[in-house]
Amino acid sequence: MTNKSIYGLTFEQLSAWLLEYGHKKGRAEKVWEWLYRNRVKNFTEMVDVNKDCIQLLQDNFVIETLTEHIKQEASDGTIKFLFKLEDGHLIETVLMRHPYGLSVCVTTQVGCNIGCSFCASGLLTKKRDLISAEIVEQIMKIQFHLDQIGQGEKVSHIVVMGIGEPFDNYENMVNFLQVVIDQKGLAIGSRKITVSTSGIVGKIYEFTDRKLHVNLAISLHAPNDELRTKIMKINRVYPIEKLMESIKYFLKTNRRIMLEYILLKGVNDQQQHALELADLLKDIPQGAAVNLIPYNPVDEHDQYQRSEQKDVIGFYETLRKKGIICSIRQEHGTDIDAACGQLRSKQMKEEKSNI
Ligand code: SAH
Ligand code: SF4
User: Which residues hold [4Fe-4S] cluster (predicted)?
Assistant: First the structure.
């Protein structure tokens, strides 16, 4: 049996495991600090940890399991990493520079089964869920990269918006959040984390009740069921009315919700759609904001085009006039393969054609 990655354990799990072997909580705290504060890549670097404990960790765990396959850097500082998992699958992780900090977009699954009609990730059906350790390690890899640059920069924000549907890999995703939020380690503030979902309603309730206090983003993309079902077939299972009820429930806990809306030329970007959207959101409490997303063209989805600038502005202004808080997403890394899942799907095509 191969050893498992230590990044998969929450602090409580690590403490409980070490205690079984007679190592008290103080030792778990030290190990945790070495992992996430000093960010060692080898257990033997934990110089003030008892030798037996180091041996025990070495016998049972590994630290690194991902390898860097490709790294693309855009002129605005965005870096897209393609990592190879132990079983050879490729995943994407993106580092973005914002005025307010450094944010990392993580992948949660190898491919995605939700199959939205505009998305590059959905083209490649799900091969498997990532385990929690593999999601944590994406953050660590980026942090190692920053540590290497040596300017003391730290990942400050996380968006769970890479390949995959996080609520279709719920336990691993929650476990990941618990590790990165932990105050003794990476200590990324829960308010600086956003999880994006295509709208798996049951899980929105469960997640709300879990009280992790992170922000939620919902991929809405259409103001009515007919159109949303055309764009996202998951709407058949979780129609807009049910989704709205779950959003209201989440907002009761006072966290923020971002409603994501990709603008697709002539499909969902006209005045009538903006008015319908404003109407849909009129009884949603404060705390919900709309984020208009410029469509990133995907070769295989040539039925869609990017909206014209005048329509983007028109849509935005109509929402604002109706009192809806809204913004237009700032694009990152437009000179690299920026759309969700695009670098991975391109790379896989290239590697296939080279065989
Ligand atoms: N599965 C989750 C999270 C990953 S997708 C979800 O769907 O929310 C993250 C975001 O990227 C979603 O809002 C998704 O709609 C958007 N996205 C996917 N493909 C895109 C494309 N080609 N152009 C612009 N945004 C895209
Ligand atoms: Fe999956 Fe999200 Fe892409 Fe839809 S948009 S196919 S849910 S990754």
Answer: 112, 116, 119
Residue 326 annotated in active site: no
CATH C-level class of 67-354:
alpha beta
Q: Return the pLDDT at 285.
A: 79
Ligand 1 centre to CA of 109 (Å) is 14
Half-sphere exposure of 138 (CA within 13 A, CB side): 34
Q: Residues marked as binding for [4Fe-4S] cluster?
A: 112, 116, 119
Summarised one tens digit per residue, pLDDT across range 9-38 is: 999 999 999 999 999 989 999 999 999 999
Residue closest via CA to ligand 1's atom 12 equals 219
Residues 107-147: tens digit of each pLDDT? 999 999 999 999 987 677 899 999 999 999 999 999 999 99
Gap from CA of 214 to ligand 1 centroid (Å): 19
The answer to whether residue 92 is catalytic is yes
Domain extents in the chain: 4-62, 67-354
Candidate list 53, 92, 134, 137, residue with the active-site label = 92
CB 340 within 8 A of CB 162: yes
Residue having the nearest C-alpha atom to atom 1 of ligand 1: 165
Q: Given strand 257-263, what is the order of strands in its sheet? A: 67-73, 79-84, 90-98, 101-105, 155-160, 193-197, 215-219, 257-263, 288-294, 326-328
List, for residues 33-55, the tens digit of each pLDDT value: 999 999 999 999 999 999 999 99
Q: Taking the model in full, what pTM does it have?
A: 0.94
d(CA 176, CA 170): 10
Distance CA 4, CA 192 (A): 29
Pick the catalytic residue: 33, 276, 340, 350? 340
292, 316 in Cβ contact below 8 A? yes
The CATH architecture of the domain made up of 4-62 is Orthogonal Bundle (1.10)
What residues flank ligand 1, with Cβ below 6 Å? 118-119, 161, 165, 196-198, 219, 260, 262, 293, 295-296, 298, 339-340
